[in-house]
Specification:
Shape: globular
Order of helices and strands: HHHHHHEEHHHHHHHH
Strand content: under 5%
Largest sheet: 2 strands, antiparallel
Low-confidence stretches: none
Number of helices: 14
Number of strands: 2
Oligomer: single chain
Mean pLDDT: 88
Number of domains: 1
Helix content: 55-70%
Distance between the termini: 9 Å
Structural class: mainly alpha
Radius of gyration: 18 Å
Length: 283
Amino acid sequence: MTRLHRLLLFWAAAPAIVLGVWLLRVAEAPSSVQTLQVIVATVAAAVFVVFVVLARMRRIGHAGDFQWLTLVLTLSLFIPLLAGSQGGPERWLVLGGARLYVAPVVLPVALFLLGAPLRAPAIYAAAVVAAATALLLQPDASQLSAFALAMLVLLAASSSHLPLRLALLAVLLCCAVVAWRSPDPLTPVPYVEGVFNVATEVSLFALLAALISAALPVIAFVWVARVTRHNGTFAVAVYYAALFALAPLQVTPVPLLGFGTGPILGYFLVASVVSRASARHAA
């Protein structure tokens, strides 16, 4: 893979972020929301660049060397539940006047790490169960469904014992069903979950642009997964594809296109990790 190809995930996000900022203005989102979106996108892009540079200088090892982080990441999903600082679904970590959506920050990287060769089945199983349990308790049916579909890919390709894989699959399926049956009192926000509707109100061209820009990151991950043949990367692609498919139902923020600090930070974080792995694959 060339250097340009390894940066594909970075550039694939640009159209959605730029168009998303414009849709925030169209939807008359508060100026503080628009400013925060721009700041977070700038910081996340800078983190990506710094990570790639440090990795090139061999200051950061391969993601597969840090499999113990998987359990830590999934356990962090319980932080919003423990904080308990807001009513209704507890999916956010309140930081000052802003709320950080934890799941889209944590899950993409966790899925990539879960795609590494299995070394400790107990930690692997604990991480999967912890993620499913936390998302069920929040509850967050869309993130749980995306995680479950991505895990289906990993479990199908795993070399672990069949009983373990079937047990984890059963846990994921049961949690997803219960999560969808749990009431979600949140009302969709036009510039978060409803950005496709906002684009539709502008014009058919705006809707097509929104759909294409939101699909580009998914397509980029699929392409990188096909080239590198890394199960974790393909799982991340399935995760984002599931969220993209659920977006028209307005049950989840549209990654990168709609307002949300968590999805932007999570995307660039996993993109930097996958780009690093792609570079090692090329070497």
